[in-house]
Amino acid sequence: MPDDTFDAEWLELREPVDHRSRAEVLLDPLRQHWGDRRWSRILDLGSGTGSNLRYLAPRLPGPQRWTLLDHDPSLLKQAHQSSRSILSTAVRVQPVVGRLETEGLERAAHVDLVTASALLDLVSEAWLRGLVSRCQSVSAGVLLALSYDGRIRWHGPPDPDDEWIQERVNEHQLRDKGTGAALGPRAGEVAADHLRRAGYRCTLVPSPWRLGPDDSALTRRLMEGWVEAVGELDPDDLPRARGWLERRRAGLDREGGDLEVGHVDLLALPPSTPFSRRAAP
Ligand SMILES: C[S@@+](CC[C@H](N)C(=O)[O-])C[C@H]1O[C@@H](n2cnc3c(N)ncnc32)[C@H](O)[C@@H]1O
pLDDT at position 256, please? Predict the structure, then answer.
């Protein structure tokens, strides 16, 4: 079992919010390219329990051959079971237990579209460079959804420690999550920059979580995770972070909570002539 695990309950809690937050404006250009190029092979990196598959497969036309790659075999097993309803002869799914750094990069050079959701902020710039060069070598498209962008905005009365918590969380985001120092909140911008320099046409759009009273279970888990992150940076900060959590929990009980957590979605489409076949200048 890998060290940096994500529990299935957390992934289940965030899935409906993730799906409603995704930037639908990216779907038309993706579908157009998918059809024109007769794409069918998709690699979902860090697939977890298959949320990205459940979002995207029903929105893409024609035959689809998905590879779900994750280092956590128990999440992959759930992905297969919980995605049965969308599986058909048109949509095939192969789960692969593997690491982003090895099997992930290898497989990126054998598909038409590389995708990931809620993953980009966890990876390092070195790993991202490797991914971009694999994708460029085969003119694969890239769709990276729901990368955290560092913004946490509370609506309603502020707490004196909101900003402090946000700063500590964003600092924690930069810690190594397995592929080297993580990109954290800059992930979307940095990826767009690398992909543009590799000749891709990039569209980067906001896909914020807008959390209201109906999402209080997710908000509570999120706040607990933030306090844990503060404690991992410096255990001496825990009492202050717990004080903030108590006050914010009381606010949730009273008013239901209303906050925005910034994310971005990035679609990168390769130039119309595949790189390998481009005429020399
Ligand atoms: C935040 S979760 C996102 C899961 C899923 N994409 C979603 O949207 O619900 C990140 C996923 O990446 C996987 N992961 C993290 N580091 C990894 C690595 N080095 N190699 C393979 N998978 C990794 C985790 O097991 C987890 O399933």
Answer: 81
Residue type, 59: R
Q: Is residue 278 part of a domain?
A: no
Spatial contact of 91 and 58, defined as CB atoms under 8 Å apart:
no
Domain membership of residue 218 (yes or no) is yes
CATH number of the domain encompassing residue 240: 3.40.50.150
Ligand 1 centroid to Cα of residue 48, in Å, is 5
Q: How far is the CA of 105 from the centre of ligand 1 (A)?
A: 14
Q: What atom in ligand 1 is closest to the CA of residue 11? A: 9
Convert the pLDDT of each residue in 121-151 to its tens digit: 999 999 999 999 999 999 999 999 999 999 9
Q: Taken in order 95, 8, 218, 149, is the CA torsion positive or negative?
A: negative
Total domains present in the chain? 1
**Residue 103 alpha carbon to ligand 1 centre in Å:** 14
Closest atom, ligand 1, to C-alpha of 18:
8
52: closest CA among 29, 32, 30? 30
pLDDT band of 91, cuts 50, 70, 90: very high
**Segment among 86-95, 178-187, 194-203, 208-217 with least mean pLDDT:** 86-95
pLDDT over 90 (residue 23): yes
Residue 193 belongs to a domain: yes
- Please give the residue range of the domain that contains residue 182: 8-272
> Is 83 domain-assigned?
yes
Tokens 């959804």 correspond to: 145
Rounded Cα distance, 145 and 115, in Å? 8
Predicted confidence band at 4 (pLDDT cuts at 50, 70, 90)? Answer: low
**Cβ < 6 A, ligand 1 pocket:** 4, 6, 11, 18, 46-48, 51-52, 70-72, 75, 99-100, 117-119, 122, 178-179
